[in-house]
From TrEMBL:
Pfam families: IspD (PF01128). Catalyzes the formation of 4-diphosphocytidyl-2-C-methyl-D-erythritol from CTP and 2-C-methyl-D-erythritol 4-phosphate (MEP). This is 2-C-methyl-D-erythritol 4-phosphate cytidylyltransferase. The record marks R16, K23 as: Transition state stabilizer.
């Protein structure tokens, strides 16, 4: 398996959390959310390098966390851009030239397990671009700006997208470069490759691999970790 580098965008301020500071510094089972996220990749034998991309005001705190927890695979902690896409592009550039497979994973998604991550790597080894996602439980409606229902797409063809997302470095960098040239912004990195016409493979994720965005998410994450420990 090729050397894998991890880019963790962690610059979001998390306004929906209402904490008044970066939600990734909130404690989850006594440790910052970001620490849970980084530790997973630090412990993976497949991961060679980790780059964390944060807001300028958070860089010192992130550096202190990395030093305190002895995360030796973190090779760079850098300032993010105006948008998440800008942050990921900068993060990829900070990886060593030997890294040819790049995984992008949300800093606020701390419940990915080592087993699930390694299974993801094995299932996506033959694909140039692959993402994790889960089937939807609820019926989805597409509506217009006034709230009028336009259609009900069948759930069978819909997935809620998660991270990690994995890419061959060359096509990821090309997609970011082309998007930057024309000012195109996608909802995630996979959207850039779709925009460029590259195939992206979806593999099954986990209902527990939640992104901590609101106080309810933090409560749920606490319960999930408590059950795992039990």
């Amino acid at each position: 398996m090729a050397e894998i580098g991890i880019v963790i965008p962690a610059a979001g301020q998390g306004k929906r959390m209402g904490a008044g500071f970066n939600k990734q510094f909130l404690l989850l089972r006594g440790q910052p959310i970001l620490v849970h996220t980084v530790r997973l990749f630090e412990e993976s034998s497949y991961v060679s390098e980790i780059v964390i991309v944060g807001a300028e005001s958070d860089l010192l705190v992130i550096k202190e966390l990395v030093y305190h927890h002895k995360f030796l695979k973190v090779v760079a902690i850098i300032q993010g851009g105006a948008q998440r896409q800008d942050s990921v592009r900068t993060g990829v550039q900070a990886l060593s030239s030997t890294i040819q497979r790049v995984v992008v994973h949300d800093g606020a998604r701390p419940l990915l397990t080592l087993q699930a991550f390694h299974r993801f790597l094995e299932e996506t080894e033959e694909f140039s671009a692959a993402i994790m996602g889960i089937q939807l439980k609820d019926t989805i409606k597409r509506v217009d700006l006034s709230g009028k229902v336009l259609e009900t797409p069948p759930r069978e063809g819909l997935r809620a997208v998660q991270t990690p997302q994995i890419f061959d470095r060359g096509i990821l960098e090309e997609a970011h470069h082309q998007a930057e040239k024309v000012g195109y912004y996608g909802t995630d990195d996979a959207a850039l490759l779709e925009w460029m016409g590259y195939p992206v493979q979806m593999v099954e994720g986990s209902q527990e691999n939640i992104k901590v965005t609101t106080p309810d998410d933090l409560w749920l994450a606490e319960r999930i970790l408590a059950m795992r420990e039990a």
